[in-house]
Design brief:
With 121 residues, this protein is mainly alpha-helical. It contains seven helices and three strands, in the order H-E-H-H-E-E-H-H-H-H. It has a three-stranded antiparallel sheet.
Length: 121
């Protein structure tokens, strides 16, 4: 009677820092830096252990995408997150979609011609 649904809450903090870091393939220190920069705010247990939710994991993935693939520094990411919160819009998803479209277009341009005209030569 609804037991599975409670476990599917993406806001529920369930991952300790080592597990969260493993999921997103970063060092735990990286997650501490993100927290120090104000990009993450994991839940804490009564004994002060950090716990990350699925929403936190998704946020970390966005941060990694923006730093590695888009060249945005942490200060810029903080501004993007603040703007997104103030405007109530999904700015980061739009940036991600734009990047994926651009990457797909670049891949198509780099592929050799395989049409019938090329085969008739």
């Amino acid at each position: 009677m609804g037991f599975g649904r409670a476990d599917k809450d993406p806001r529920r903090p369930v991952y300790v820092i080592s597990v969260a870091a493993g999921i997103v393939s970063v060092h735990p220190r990286t997650l501490r830096i993100y927290e120090d920069e104000g990009l993450l705010c994991p839940a804490r247990t009564p004994t002060n252990i950090r716990l990350y939710s699925d929403e936190d994991i998704r946020r970390i993935q966005w941060i990694r995408h923006l730093t590695r693939d888009r060249g945005v520094n942490l200060a810029g990411i903080k501004i993007l997150f603040e703007l997104e919160e103030r405007l109530g819009k999904r700015i980061l998803e739009a940036l991600y979609d734009e990047g994926m479209r651009r990457q797909a277009a670049e891949t198509r341009e780099a592929e050799p011609e395989t049409g019938t005209a090329a085969g008739n030569k």
